[in-house]
Amino acid sequence: MTLLYIEDDPQARNAATSLFSEFFDTVIVGEDGEEGARLYADSHAKIDIVITDITMPRMNGIELIQSIRTISADVAIIVLSAHHESNFLTQTIEAGVDGYLLKPLNISQLIQTLHKVIEKIHLRYENAKNVLLLKQYENITNLSSIISKSDPKGVITFVNDKFCQISGYTKEELIGRSHNIIRHPDMPKTAFRDLWKTIKDEKKTWQGIVKNRAKNGDTYYVKTTIQPILNPDGEVEEYISLRHDITAIMSDKKQLFDFLEANRLSVLILVQIEDYTILEKFYDKASVEKIEMAFGKNMLYLMPNRWGFQRVYHLENGLYAFAINRRNCKASKEEIHAVLEQFLANVKEYIVKVDTVEYDISVICSFTYGIFKIFEDAKIGIENAIQNKQSIIYADGLSGIEYENALKNIETIHMIKTAIDNRKIISYFQPIVNNTTQKVEKYESLVRLVTEEGQLLTPFYFLEIAKKGRYYSKITKIVLDNSFEALLKVPDVAISINLSVHDIERDEITDYIEHLLIKHESEAHRVIFELLESEDIKDFFLIKHFIQRVKARGVKIAIDDFGTGYSNFERLLSYEPDILKIDGSLIKNIKHNTASQHIVETIVLFAKKQNLTTVAEFVESEAIYEMVRDIGVDFSQGYHFGRPEMF
């Protein structure tokens, strides 16, 4: 999103702009009201939110807001105010603002205010989109409206043919009856109380979306306008209802949300086709859609339907939902879990047949019940099930946990940005010792972050969060700079630098590495890049090409954490490394774990046959050092020889 921020105080403006940059893709800054009005007039088409101070020279915040409102009545405006400016509150309300921020700014206040304002923006957009869609639909279907009339008591006195067609009832069955004959049980009583209050007590037009049930039990949705017809004395003579069938444009997701809104206490089960992305890769789009439709049509038969599920909601991308009012399903979570286990067993035996395609479906399930964000809970449950390779997850309350995690992530990102701005991303260096001479021949560069309170943090506390934001590349560049500078401080010793797959896949980083290798051409032979083998590799040939480029400049390649996880000998050979760093989990247990010892011996034997150097990590004692030295490991790294320190 794009923010227009207006503040006349340079110090406050600079501080707030830095903070706002965390939340907005683009921040346009104005120094007073007049500049703000000009900037908005020039760029209003791309501005999503305006944040403005009140007290400013040339044009104050109130005048600015009034100027903006002449151009756009909908753009979100937030007032950034000091406490002593509370006398402007009435004027800002009249000018039409969407939120307030108090000086001095803090992250929690900003997040809460932005959350509320963005919700308003989203609702305005959704409402505008729905109104536009329904308007077009009305124009197209104007000649096929569903019309009825009723007396002041709500008894039907007239229906047209379209009413009969959609409801399935004849005119004789409808006339003389209440509209309750087509009322769907999912519609809450409160909705009809509001309807009658509007048309009977207030004698105003009522409009809304109504969910109805046809004679055969089918559900249909109509956009309804009910107009009270008044006699000269102002009394209701009759009601005319004009409806348009919008069932076709109501997505399953919308219908599911309508159900959950009308039934605030519900059981919700989400079912996700497992490995859906693989399904998409194997079959063309048309075949995938046919498979999804065929499976969706049979899910009711596969689900042990002891609670009376009436339909399956297809939410696209292999995701389906069952929903039922809690009054009809009073089962415990253990009972629901047992039913889903039977459902999974039924699915396992079921084969989808579409044309000449046969596909074995496997699914995972998430379920929850309650009144607060149950869809969000269940959706996060599906994500957790995929990540943790579980088949069934009870997901109640997971969205709250995700929200708390998001707040923590924002705090961590702010900490990272502050550290980058204050040059508090630093490098420590741990010695790597030749096992024969016991002399230091290499150092591994290890990143650290110093907080504003002076606390030294290892990558465990910030690097994964950094990978999700825009600061990861900046951290990588800082580490590269620190490591190449260290070459000048410790002549004749190599510096080993960790690089992830994500680093190599970014042109920005590989180009910067190329720049540093050219700049330090005479020292390039003392650079080692440690690569961590990973399943996340998207383009293996890109990684291999990078290795070839840097090795041509004299750089050596090490494979980090070798011996556990995804690392394998075949892939390793294609990398043509110079060094194998044996995973620390094998080394620290080598004295007491025979299996670890045998694995290390195998790695060393393989390395010697391939003319590769080996390094043992986590060498914490003299006994471990002697053992890895006797096995034939070339180098050792660990607290026994030195902790990471700054040069």
Which terms summarize this structure?
647 residues; alpha/beta; 8-stranded mixed beta barrel; 5-stranded parallel β-sheet; 23 helices; 26 strands; 43% helix; globular
- Strand arrangement, largest sheet? 18-19-21-22-23-24-25-26
Helix content: 40-55%
Mean pLDDT, rounded to whole units?
A: 87
Termini separation comes to 43 Å
Give a nutshell description of this structure:
This protein has 647 residues and is α/β, with parallel strands linked by helices.
Please write out the topology.
Layout: E1 2-6, H1 10-20, E2 26-30, H2 33-43, E3 49-53, H3 61-71, E4 76-81, H4 89-95, E5 99-102, H5 107-140, E6 146-150, E7 156-159, H6 161-167, H7 171-174, H8 189-201, E8 206-213, E9 219-230, E10 236-245, H9 252-262, E11 266-273, H10 276-282, H11 285-302, E12 313-314, E13 319-325, H12 333-349, E14 351-354, E15 357-360, E16 363-370, H13 374-388, E17 392-394, H14 398-421, E18 425-434, E19 440-450, E20 456-457, H15 463-467, H16 472-489, E21 494-499, H17 501-504, H18 507-519, E22 527-532, H19 540-551, E23 556-562, H20 569-575, E24 579-582, H21 584-587, H22 594-609, E25 613-616, H23 622-631, E26 635-637
Parallel strand pairs: 1-2, 1-3, 3-4, 4-5, 16-17, 19-21, 21-22, 22-23, 23-24, 24-25, 25-26
Antiparallel strand pairs: 6-7, 6-10, 8-9, 9-10, 11-13, 11-16, 12-13, 14-15, 18-19, 18-26, 19-20
Helix pairs in contact: 2-3, 13-14, 16-18
